[in-house]
Amino acid sequence: MPAQQKKLIFSAAGVLSLACALGTAAAVGTQLWVRGSVLCSTGALLVNASGPELRKFIGDIQYGLFSGQRVRQCGLGGRPFQFSFFPDLLRIIPASIHVSVILFCTVLIVFALVGAGFFMLNAFGSPYETLHGPAGLYLWSFISCSCGCLVMILFSSEVKIHHLSEKIANFKEGAFTFKTHSEQFANSFWTILVCSLVHFLNALLIRFAGFEFPFSKSKDSGTITGAVDLMY
Question: Any bridge partners for residue 166, and if so which?
Answer without folding.
Answer: none
